[in-house]
Amino acid sequence: MEAFLLEQGEKPFRAIQLLKWIHQYGVTDFDEMTNISKALRVRLKECAEVRPPQIRERYDAADGCHKWIVEVASGSSVETVFIPEAGRGTLCISSQAGCSLDCSFCATGKQGFNSDLTTAEIIGQLWLANRELGCFGTKSPRRVTNVVMMGMGEPLLNFDNVMNAVSLMMEDNCYGLSKRRVTISTSGVVPALDRMKDYTDASLAISLHAPNDELRSQIVPINRKYPIRELLRSTNAYLASLSDSRQATIEYILIAGVNDHRQHARELAELLRNTPCKINLIPFNPFTGSQYKRSSNAAISNFQKILRDAGYTVTIRTTRGDEIGAACGQLVGMVDDTTRRSARYRALMQQDAEQSVPVRRLKIQ
Ligand code: SAH
Ligand code: SF4
């Protein structure tokens, strides 16, 4: 913004004024930016615009969650979800329309991939949530206290735009969120994770979901390229680069009969021995076409107990917003798939329905 204003022959401090108008007051009309000179406002109107993304649809769940379907430039739409909890409000933001990584349990992955979101489309989701929740302006209470990059897409495959948007989230003159309250979640794009420390000090979540390479490669295909050992090495290096002592969040989805056996919990406890982390267990959220089932409550609490007994902090993510399809892994937007995966998937669903193919069970040693 400073560079842009310098180009206009303006002083760099005007950048702060503009950022505040846009991101703290939610103003889109340059004429309302009253501390900016008339001449500059006229010039801004000629060469720039403040254009928030358009909301296509809005869903409100009985549990207080909201989901917005937001249109992006490529013509696809993505989903943004607000989850209120006691004392905080978490916004789950998308980074891509679809996802190219195709994890076996994820509805977004099954949609295929269309496009990377621009920086504006990513930060625009936070802007929209603030507007929709009535939080712009000095006197309104802040309702979005946390941001998680856990919507549609793999944030580290849209690296530059995600890093730019995240820095606006944490910028005092914009949203001023603390680095502990902005979380980037990745399924393990190791080379990008290795670079992350040079761009941000946001918090990190790792979508691990399996305690060994054999199983992880089956459900998180990117593991075939970057195996667990590499991923944990990179995770530790990122944590070590931070100026405070912080833990990674290890996300582990629990799918009945696939990765929820006691032996998996014991193996996981061993695997994470040298990684500063807390573990978040996510009961699988079903979506149309998936044959996976959520683990039983007994399996979930056994899994938690084994990890707790091994000394870990373990939380179980409560399912929120599933009546509006806003729960983890249910986000699909309207993705105009360029990879043809969605067509393949639809064909497969059809085949499965006809032949009733059983879910593949994995051997437990
Ligand atoms: N691509 C990134 C961020 C988006 S996914 C990543 O994978 O980390 C956000 C989280 O939702 C991930 O932990 C993901 O594994 C989880 N998730 C995906 N599908 C799910 C499902 N069907 N039920 C529960 N969680 C799911
Ligand atoms: Fe992509 Fe994450 Fe879904 Fe995997 S879990 S397909 S990386 S969005």
Describe the structure.
This protein is of the alpha/beta class and 365 residues long. The protein is built from twelve helices and twelve strands. Helix 5 (119-132) packs parallel to helix 6, helix 7 packs parallel to helix 9 (228-241) and helix 10 runs parallel beside helix 11 (297-309). The protein is globular and about 70 Å long. Mean pLDDT is 90; it is low at 352-365.
Short overview:
With 365 residues, the chain is of the alpha/beta class. It has helices at 2-7, 14-24, 38-47, 107-110, 119-132, 159-170, 190-196, 213-219, 228-241, 262-271, 297-309, 341-355; strands spanning 55-60, 66-71, 77-85, 88-92, 96-98, 113-116, 146-149, 182-186, 203-207, 248-254, 277-283, 314-316. It has twelve helices and twelve strands.
Kindly list the characteristics that best describe this protein.
globular; binds S-adenosyl-L-homocysteine; ten-stranded mixed β-sheet; DNA polymerase, domain 1; two-stranded antiparallel sheet; alpha/beta; binds iron/sulfur cluster; TIM Barrel; 2 domains
Question: What is the strand and helix layout of this fold?
Answer:
Blueprint: H1 2-7, H2 14-24, H3 38-47, E1 55-60, E2 66-71, E3 77-85, E4 88-92, E5 96-98, H4 107-110, E6 113-116, H5 119-132, E7 146-149, H6 159-170, E8 182-186, H7 190-196, E9 203-207, H8 213-219, H9 228-241, E10 248-254, H10 262-271, E11 277-283, H11 297-309, E12 314-316, H12 341-355
Helix pairs in contact: 5-6, 7-9, 10-11
This protein binds S-adenosyl-L-homocysteine (SAH) and iron/sulfur cluster.
